[in-house]
Amino acid sequence: MKLNLDAESSPQATRPKKKHGRKNSHLKPSKSHAEKQNSDELHLEQEAPTADEAPLQQHLDSASLSDSKEDVSDEFKDLKLSKARESGSADEQDHVNTGSPDNLDQENEDDNPIRDQVDEESDSSEDEVAPRNTIGDVPLEWYRDEKHIGYDISGKKILKKEREDKLQSFLASADDSKSWRKLYDEYNDEVIELSKEEVKQLRRLLKGKAPHADFDPYAPYVDWFKWDDAKHPLSNAPEPKRRFIRSKWEAKKVVQLVRAIRNGHIKFDKPKEEQRFYHLWGDDSSSTEKTAHLSYIPAPKPKFPGHDESYNPSLEYIPTQEEINSYQLMYDEDRPKFIPRRFTSMRSVPAYDNALKDAFERCLDLYLCPRVRKKRINIDPESLKPKLPSRKDLRPYPTTCYLEFRGHKDAVMSISTEANGQWIASGSLDGTVRIWEVETGRCLKVWELGEAVKYVAWNPLPELPILAAAVGVDVLLLNTGFGDGEVQAKVKELLHIDALPATDNSDKTPIATWLQDDKVEGIRLRHFKTVSSVEWHRKGDYLSTVMPAGESRGVVIHQLSRKLTQKIPFKLHGLPVSSIFHPTRSIFFVSTKKNVRVYDLLKQKLMKKLETGLREVSSIAVHPAGDNVIVGSREGKVCWFDMDLSSQPYKILSCHPKDVTNVAFHRSYPLFASCSDDCTAYVFHGMVYSDLTQNPLIRPLEILRGHKATNGRGVMDCKFHPRQPWLFTAGADSVIKLYCH
Amino acid sequence: MVNKVTRKKHYRPPGQKKEGNAARYVTRSQAVKQLQVSLPVFRKLCIFKGVFPREPKKKVKGNHHTYYHLKDVAFLHHEPLLEKFRDIRAYEKKISKADAKKNKERANFLKEHRPTYVLDRIIRERYPKFIDALRDLDDCLSMVHLFAALPAQERLKVEAKRIHNCRRLSHEWQAFISRTHKLRKVFISVKGIYYQAEVEGQKITWLTPHSLHQALTDDVDLTVILNFMEFYETLLAFVNFHVYHSINLKYPPILDPHLEALAADLYALSRYFDANTRSSLLDSQTSSSSGYGQVDAEENSELRLAQLQQQLSLNEPTALMHLVEDAAAKNEDEDEDEDTRECKKLFKNMKFFLSREVPRESLLFVIPAFGGMVSWEGDGAPFTESDKTITHQIVDRPTQTHKFLTREYVQPQWVFDCVNTRLILPTEDYLVGRVPPPHLSPFVDNEAEGYVPDYAETLNRLKAAAKSEVLPLPGVGKEDLDDPQKLLAEGIIDRAEAIEAAEKKQKMMALEKQYHDELKLELQGVQYSSATSNVDKQSSNQENEGGEDADLPDPEQIAEDNANLPLVVMSRNKKKLYEAMQIGKRRKKGEIDLLKERKRKHKESQKSQ
């Protein structure tokens, strides 16, 4: 009280001072209701002269302070304010909690011993103290525009205090060093200052400790009742009778059980029965019933051990250390599972480490591996080979090299036999065309053409000994000079061009121009692209040339007698590789890289398309009867087409590991041959039957070797002798060989 | 109107039944689901019932699944054991519940009264005839013998009871085989000892580990093995029962506890055999008309056994054994085949004594199987080391200090080699302290394999010699065609001779060929030079020479060409098959070449030393 008096004694007291005083006044009522009345009255008396505007309000103020503060604190909690205000709200909350602490009491103790007494009495009733403001839990903004903030307990209005403007309050707070422990209670419209002890308590609470420093949370437990020396039981009632007599129902049950045991319905601890074994299979005759389910596939038996698994194998079964080391480099599945070891006596054999593991793997195999019955082919591999007719029966055919024709300086690209079989011509990369006598191997004639000769072809008529040679972009028609005067005259007339044919007016470059070549005494047919092959028609008047780069004009046909050139009236599909005339009819074969097309020259239309299925066709030959065609390919395969049968190959012979360079039919014998870059030539027996129901018989007869590989090329060309079963082969090693029977 | 619906690969319209492989095969997880069991139970059932996955032609669910046939699954589904397993599972739950409630009394009671199941019906179902069981006995015997050597570990559920049972079963089986002389081949390998017996025409091969304790390794799933063991033990017990009854013996045999304690089970069993055959001979009518109860008979037999034991210990056991065997032999002789008779006679009139360090169990099994008598160092042995009638003592130590002159001291391998060759081999190579000759596998057909080890040839020669020596003795008149041994012997001689002759012939051929080749060379050289001289005189001689080599038709080349020519016209599939076969041939040849190469090197190194 004294404090209060002191504080309020000076009328010019600053606001905070006033607040402080009021705060104390608030604390006092929080202690006891009775005392509150007292103090408030006193307060009123003191303040009456200064706070003239609302003495009543002040009175009410202090009365309801503590309760209202609680409400405010609740509100603050809900709002979750910013940090600055949060601390404030926390302060307030704690302030509420400090309702009972003794510190404050002690503070007041010396002031008023009488009140102190009252204080202690009313300590528990602190919560029931009515707040100064009695509006209850209503939004404060309802009173915003009113002059009062609410009503006191007696229903009188509590008037609002006059407001300081912001600037003033700020300045005041800046001046006041204690402003940080002041907060404004909106509900009761007053500013509260926290004491030091309250702040301390708040700090402790913030740390999560009990608010009082003296409080011991872990105080030893003291039981509220002593059991040890209790003399008497809790209940003094005597034991009931039912504890001493047996239950009727239980007695009945026992009798039941006893009877059951006596009668043998209940048996105790039967001796455990060992499994009894008996004659399971009895006499086998009765067990003939067939199992209904699926067939049982017995598991394959484990492999029997070999010599190498012996504890003492022969020395040769033990791998050397290098071999054992080399096992480490192998793949897991190739690596031997078991490495033989040798022990010189039985006592030194150790226990096998993997015994259990092996057994386990066997178990896994038995129940986890799918079982399938598989047919094991146990045949002699030789029996897979087809039964071929004996080679002896198919004689004659070329078997051994009989002659060699040497003289060329470079790879012989092409050879051609004369119609009678007396001469052969050869063209080579060294730029020469030579004519050889077959019987002796003598070189009869040489033309130096200056450029690599790609192809040579004799005129098929014996009375027209003309040789065509493909040299670069030219095709030279050479007079070989054979034959008597009459023949020579005819040839010379044929190979003479009277005058230059009138040049066409067309802008296009002509496919070929006919020129007289005086140097070699023949005709030079100049093409617009490099010529790769030349083929004569059977009548000797026409010849076809192939220019692989010539696109739509890649295959042309020349007429010798009229010195005419025409391109074939068919569309080419793909790059032309070679062309050939049918041996008896006016049919023309053109092979592109993939397919062979057969054209009828008279009707001028496509007859057939032979689908080879090969990657790249290299050569083609027609059977002398005209119904069968063989096609050689760069992947080393030879396809036999039976044109009456189908447009698919009748048989594919994959005989060469390298490119097939050429294929050839014999004119009269049932022979055909293929030659390849692997330096071999195969001779086949290819019998075609006149009976259409019988398929051609094909049987390989001989592999002819002898040529040597030069620049990766082997045998470049092969041709049969027109009469004899002889084969000429031209090699890249500049040798021509003759194989005879 | 045609609905053009893009179909999935295995599309099946709703409401339409599955067809083909999709309907016939299910994956394992599907099967487990269908049977409503857990995977371990399914596995156990599969093991017991002998159900295995099958390979459908088209794997509808993918390549990495295992497929079971629906019929197999249905077969499992109808198995009464399945219900039994479910009961057991429920029962185990009761136990765990009692345990969890700390109801010890109930838990113990439940644990003691666990439901059990028997497998005899399943065995009967899997093997409708005894011969079927014999056919599948290989794995069973190997496993039982392996378990007999395993250490018991309760932690891994390898119970001592089971191990003992396995030991007992394996000994019973061995005793039967040994007694009836059905053992044919023995092979000591690093992995253990392989035995092959012939029972009712079935060749049964099994592996026993070396008589040392095997270690239990961690890398195996013992539950799987134990499932198999459960089945195998029952199977072998029934098989043993059958075979014991086939020779008029009671099963299970009652053994002398004294001998059993000495771990001489096999010998005890053989004694049991002897005793029973004798008694059955003596009082055959009483035993046949025995109307006693089961217990009485057992007591009787035990009594009798005890009496016999007395007699045996008093009398000289060997004599009795002989007596019994002779008596038994009379009625057995009729139904014995040639092989058995031969095996029975191999060690006849020979007495073996085993030193401490030799593998006793194996030899106790093998020697009596081939008609020999055997004893060992230790208690309960039928005769002691000092017995004068012992012909062979088997030792496996570097030196033998005290030697009886009347007997031969050989290494154990001698016995096994004798058994495999069916011949009493000379003992020089096998004497104490020597490195014995290589031990060869009797399961290998050397000629089919293409490589004959040296020692196999020596053995063959010995065999041939023995036959030619022995056979003329019984009398020339007896040499008939019906004697297959004779024929075999002749065959062997012929074979040996033929091999030699063939070698000679080959050498001759090679020489001849060389000569011819040389001739040919000369001829062609001449012909060639003459031809070329005509053609081109300028070409130098050297060039000729060079050309000659390349031009000569190499005979090997020609042969190869001839062999390869038909390949050209073969179809692609056949060609591939042919090439695959060639690869296999080449590999085999490579192995043999490797062996020969090693042998050559060894010889060279020996010579250099």
From TrEMBL, chain A:
Top-rank lineage group of the source organism: Eukaryota
Principal subcellular localisation of the protein: nucleus
InterPro entries in the record: BOP1/Erb1, BOP1_N_dom, WD40/YVTN_repeat-like_dom_sf, WD40_repeat_CS, WD40_repeat_dom_sf, WD40_rpt
Record carries keyword Nucleotide-binding: no
Amino acid composition bias (Acidic residues), ranges on this chain: 118-128
Sorted UniProt keywords: Nucleus, Repeat, Ribosome biogenesis, rRNA processing, WD repeat
Domain annotation BOP1 N-terminal: ranges: 143-398
Compositionally biased region (Basic and acidic residues): 32-46, 67-95
Repeat (WD) residue spans along the chain: 405-446
Gene Ontology biological process terms in this record: maturation of 5.8S rRNA from tricistronic rRNA transcript (SSU-rRNA, 5.8S rRNA, LSU-rRNA); maturation of LSU-rRNA from tricistronic rRNA transcript (SSU-rRNA, 5.8S rRNA, LSU-rRNA)
Listed Basic residues bias regions: 15-31
Region (Disordered) location: 1-137
Subcellular location(s) per record: Nucleus, Nucleolus; Nucleus, Nucleoplasm
A GO CC annotation given for this chain: PeBoW complex
One of the record's GO molecular function terms: ribonucleoprotein complex binding
Family: Belongs to the WD repeat BOP1/ERB1 family.
PANTHER family reported for this sequence: RIBOSOME BIOGENESIS PROTEIN BOP1, RIBOSOME BIOGENESIS PROTEIN BOP1 BLOCK OF PROLIFERATION 1 PROTEIN
Purpose of the protein: Required for maturation of ribosomal RNAs and formation of the large ribosomal subunit.
Protein name: Ribosome biogenesis protein BOP1 homolog
UniProtKB/TrEMBL annotation, chain B:
SMART domains associated with the record: BRCT
Biased composition (Basic residues): 1-12, 597-609
Location of the protein in the cell: Nucleus, Nucleolus; Nucleus, Nucleoplasm
Residue ranges constituting the BRCT domain according to the UniProt record: 342-432
Annotated stretches, region: Disordered: 1-22, 530-571, 588-609
Keyword tRNA processing: no
GO cellular component: nucleoplasm; PeBoW complex; preribosome, large subunit precursor
GO biological process terms held by the UniProt record: maturation of 5.8S rRNA from tricistronic rRNA transcript (SSU-rRNA, 5.8S rRNA, LSU-rRNA); maturation of LSU-rRNA from tricistronic rRNA transcript (SSU-rRNA, 5.8S rRNA, LSU-rRNA)
Superkingdom to which the source organism belongs: Eukaryota
Major site of localization recorded for this protein: nucleus
Entry similarity comment: Belongs to the pescadillo family.
HAMAP family named in the record: Pescadillo (MF_03028)
Name this polypeptide is given: Pescadillo homolog
Organism for this UniProt entry: Cucurbita maxima
